[in-house]
Write a structure and sequence with these properties.
Number of strands: 6
Order of helices and strands: HEHHEEHEEEHH
Shape: elongated
Largest sheet: 4 strands, antiparallel
Distance between the termini: 89 Å
Strand order of the largest sheet: 2-3-1-6
Length: 142
Amino acid sequence: EEAPVEEASPSDCVELTFDGLSLADVDQDEFKAEIKENLVTMGMTREALNELQIRLREGSIIAELIGPVAALEEVRAQPLAEMKVCGVQAAVTKGAERLVPVQAEETEAAQPPPPPPPPQPLEEEPLAEEAQPDVEAKATAP
């Protein structure tokens, strides 16, 4: 049971807190199943979902979603703050941002490069304006 936990470092985790609920008062298997149903409804693939572990602990109820980088990136892409389990709104209390910079060296090659900046059309407009007087000058020259 400890082996999967060792595979994921603490930063490979997203933590959701459900205030007002007590771990002793809920069926933990049903609670985890409801979290998974929410993630699938939000658009997470079942393949990525199957790679996740969900651990519950006290403190209201805190659900730790633990898994490989790719699966957790998919979790982070979902509107987690909209999730409701047992009628209680989730609060993302840890791991909402992309991976912690400490891991950047290890995962940098696996992450896609950032998209290029959008083209700047403002630079082209002055060129077009400069070209117009030349066209007029050529048209009146002959």
